């Protein structure tokens, strides 16, 4: 999988939402894209695998997670930070 971090994250999220990647904007929320809690967990796993990182996200307590999932753009920035910290 080539492309920028943003492109890869958008592809992963689009796949989970069964949308065309062009329908996923940086200001989109996962909820607005129709991604439920299972889709969120699957997206996190796919992101971890695609970038060989460990995302600090607890699916059982998402509100207490240090990984912000408020929008696609915030997720992209967090993934970029995790990659830089590797």
Automatic annotation (TrEMBL):
Q: Has keyword Transferase?
A: no
**Record-annotated Carrier domain positions:** 3-83
- Pfam families of this UniProt entry? PP-binding
Q: List where the protein spans the membrane.
A: none
Keyword terms: Phosphopantetheine, Phosphoprotein
**UniProt-listed SUPFAM superfamilies:** ACP-like (SSF47336)
User: What InterPro entries does UniProt report for this protein, alphabetically?
Assistant: ACP-like_sf, PP-bd_ACP, Ppantetheine_attach_site
Gene3D superfamilies xrefs: ACP-like
Q: Entry's PROSITE patterns?
A: CARRIER (PS50075), PHOSPHOPANTETHEINE (PS00012)
Q: Provide the protein name.
A: Acyl carrier protein
